[in-house]
Structure formats: C-alpha cells, structure tokens
Amino acid sequence: MNKWYAIALSACLMSSVLALPGAASAAAAEKPVRVFLDGKPIKFEAPPLVEDGTTLVQFRPIFEKLGLRIGWNEDTQTVTGTRDDLMIKLIIDDTGAYVNERPTELELPPRLVDGNTFVPLRFVGEASGKEVTWNEKTSTIYLRTPKNVGKTTDPSKPVKGEYAFPDGTKYTGQLVNGYPEGTGKLYDEKGKLLFEGTMSGGLPADGRLRSYYDNGQLEFNGTIKDGVWSGSVKQYMTSGSLMFDGTYVNGEREKGTLYSETGDKYVGPFDNDLPNGTGKITYDSGDVYEGDVVDGVREGKGTYTTAKGEKVVGEFKNNTLNGLVSHYDRKGTLLSVSEYSNDILISKVDMTSESSTLPNTNTTTQPAPLKIENERHDKAISLLKTQYNENKKKVENQIAQIRKSNPGTYATKASYDRALKDANAKQEEILEKMGSLPLDNSVTAEAARVELEKQLIETQELLAQIIAKGSVQQQIQALRDQLTLLRESYTEAVKRENEQHAEMVKKLK
C-alpha cells in the first residue's frame, strides 16, 4: 500500500491558488479582475491583486458573500471565517492554513497591503465548496455553487459535493463536515480516475483503487479494504507489461501469477509478498518446475520438466539439485537415480543399458542488460519517492501537532518581534511609574503601588506567553525549512538517478 502516498497522501484541502496562464496574466494586467458569485458581482474597496498568476482579494467582502462569520486576532495576525459546517483559518505572511482544523499549505500567503487584508481567492472559494473558474478574455473569475451539492441543517450528515487536495487530487462524492466521507470518486490533477468507493477520514477505505508511475503508466489496479489492498489486484511494470495478477489479503499478495521481464512466470501462493508454497514456475526457455517454492526459489520436493519433455524429479535447495533425484525421458521411462549436494553429483545409478545425462536445471534465460537497467532504475525511483513521502509526512504531522497543541502561534518572526517589543515597552513604562511614586505611606501612593504591581505581574506573564509562542513559531519555521530541504534533496536525487539511467541506456543501446 506504500504507493498510495502519491494520492493520499494525507488528507487535507487543496492549497493551490488561482493560477492563470501566462497570456491570461498579461490580460489581467490590462483589465481589472472581476469576481462573480453565482452570477452576482462581488464589490471590493481595493481591486484584486494578480501576482505571478495568482489572484488575491480583500478577505472581508469575499468572506461575507460566502456566508462566513469574520474573525481577526491582532496578536497572531490570524483571519478566520466560520459557519456551521466550516472554519477557515489564514495567517498573514504564512503559507500554513487550516480548514476545519486540518492543516494545508498555501502556495502564496495572505498579506496586508495599504491596510487591507488580501487572501488567495481559489483557496477560499474551494474551501467553501464553490467551483472556481477563470475567463481569460474578460479577466473574470466565477465562483459557482455546484448543482449537485445537497443541503442539510446537520453538518454531521453526508451531503454531495467536491473536495480538492493540495497535490491537485480532486474528490467528488459524499462529504461530512465538509470533508470526504462516504461513497465517491477520486481523480488526479489530469482527470484520471484514481479511486471509486468509500472514503473514511479523507482517505480511500473500501473500493477500487488505481495508482500510476511518474511516467503516467498504470501501476496498480485493484480492490482495497480498510485502506489496504485486499481482493483482486493487478500490478504492472513501467513498460506497461503485467507484473502480477491475483489476490491480496491485508495489503500483501495471497495467490496469483507473477511475471518477470525475462518472460518467466510463477503461479501459486505467496507469503510476505514472495512466492511461497506449492507452485508452478514456467521459464522463458519453455522449461517448467512444479513443486515447493520458498521466497521465490525452488526449495523442497519438485518436478523439473524440460521443453523437450524430460523430467527431473527429486529434492531442490536454493534452486539447485540437493538430495535424491530421478531422471525420466519424455515417454516416462526411468533413466537414472542420482544423489546431489548443492548441484554437485555425488553418485549415480543408470537404470537402462545406456548412460544418460541429466538436463541442466539452471539454464534459465538471463535478462537482457537493458531490462536489468530499467528494473534497477524503476526500483531506485520508487525507493526515493517512498522515502521522500514518508519523511515529508512525518514533518507535516509534527507541524500539525505543534499548531494543534499551541493555538494562537505567531505567524511570522515579525509578528513575534512586534508583540515582544510592545510588551517590553509596557514593562519599562510600569517600572518607571513605580520608581516615580512618592516614598511616603499615603493611601493614594499605596493604592497606586498595588495597581502598578498588579499590572507588572500581568505584563510579565504576557511576556512569558509571547516568548513561549515565539519559540513555537521558530519550531514550525525550522520544520518548514526541513520540508524545503527534503524537497530539494529529493528533486536532486531524482535528477541524478535519471541522468545516470539515461547514460546507462545510451551505453547499452
């Protein structure tokens, strides 16, 4: 099931913003961008901004038109929009955002421009369940309520709608509390069907799942149960050739046919994803082995039949003859009985008047060098991708946990520095007032001293809170830096592997 990392990877809302083609960006620069919601124009005091193909708009008008109650936290520079079934949280100058407390990453953060707060339009629109489209000719953005979206007064009941994930994956089907839950379909960013069935917690649970290689070739096509492969499953090579056709149980192969690029195939049971049990191996040469198989090799009792019809019946170990072996001709006549140890003949008794030679049971067709290189390359890329997605998910989970455990975290270091400066100034002001009080024991002086001491304690507590929040913000930024390094390292490793593969292919052709 490690291949689902490219789909589901974690379930969160699509954080992409409205990306306009290059020509559209130029058009937007010439014409003011207009925004319509269900056919009605939305008026903004400040015109929308278009930057590098991204559209940002004033948050208050768009939130109000979408029926969201507006919230603003000055200390954390946080904008919130809420309604019964939805809460959107955006932080100024921060690409981290939340939808119903689920973290997601924006491509462009909200910002303050001339006293106005601007937010990414596509993110807000799609988080609210709207379809967002762009008309290049008129420089117009349309937000529409999907026709198939049901309505309910109970957000915990499923409704039909759409949901978008950060990697471009889109879901159509039942939603609960605005999140995929129930029956539906999942598509990749190019519109290819990935999953059809039941979603649970925003992830595919029961149904038919498809996954693809980076080159677009289908890799897996089968059924899953409780989020893992279970039932009929087909797996393909990057070349498009069938690799496995059979059944899975709890995410592992149970029984079926396994094909190799060399033309060999195995039919039988599996254990720990490897051929194990009594099975049949048909080699590209036409030879056939039927018998015991352990971890993909001949191990135990079995019969090796050559393409010419001769049979070797006996014991095998690690693909070699090991023990008593009987040799028959194509008519079934016993020719000899021999004893082998690790493919070395120990003794032999001929059963006919003529001496016979056992056929070579180790003459399987060797794979072509180019096939070997392609297989190595596929495994290398798959391993790099798996490691990257696993490490990325770990870091993202750490960020989500930190934010969940520390609500109100500062969005940026600038916000933290400003809050810290204000609190320190307040403390100095209080200390100066305390130092200027008369040294008598008058009632007014004592009352003033008590009040200032109270204010000082409150200010010092505030300072401690600010410093603590600043520390959390630094932790989050450090983790974001890790994500950047992981992405850069993964990209560089894939590039090196592709270059190495291209060079090897060039030499082998």
Structural features, described:
By secondary structure, the protein is α+β, with helices and mostly antiparallel strands. 29% of the residues lie in helices and 38% in strands. It has six helices and 31 strands. The protein has helices at residues 22-30, 59-65, 121-127, 369-405, 413-435, 443-508; strands at 34-37, 40-41, 49-51, 54-58, 69-73, 78-83, 86-91, 96-99, 102-105, 111-113, 116-120, 131-135, 140-144, 159-164, 170-176, 179-187, 193-200, 203-212, 218-225, 228-236, 242-249, 252-259, 265-271, 274-275, 277-282, 288-294, 297-305, 311-317, 320-328, 334-341, 344-350. The strands form four sheets. It has an 18-stranded antiparallel sheet that branches.
Task: Jot down its keywords.
5-stranded antiparallel sheet, 509 residues, alpha+beta, 29% helix
Strand elements, count: 31
Task: Summarize the biggest pleated sheet.
Answer: 18 strands, antiparallel
Oligomer: single chain
Mean pLDDT: 83
Class by SSE composition: alpha+beta
Radius of gyration: 34 Å
Low-confidence stretches are: 1-29, 149-153
Helix content: 25-40%
Question: Span from first to last CA?
Answer: 35 Å
Shape category:
elongated
Strand content: 35-45%
Supply the number of helical segments: 6
Protein name: Copper amine oxidase-like N-terminal domain-containing protein
Coiled coil: 449-500
Signal peptide: 1-19
Pfam families: Cu_amine_oxidN1 (PF07833), MORN (PF02493), MORN_2 (PF07661)
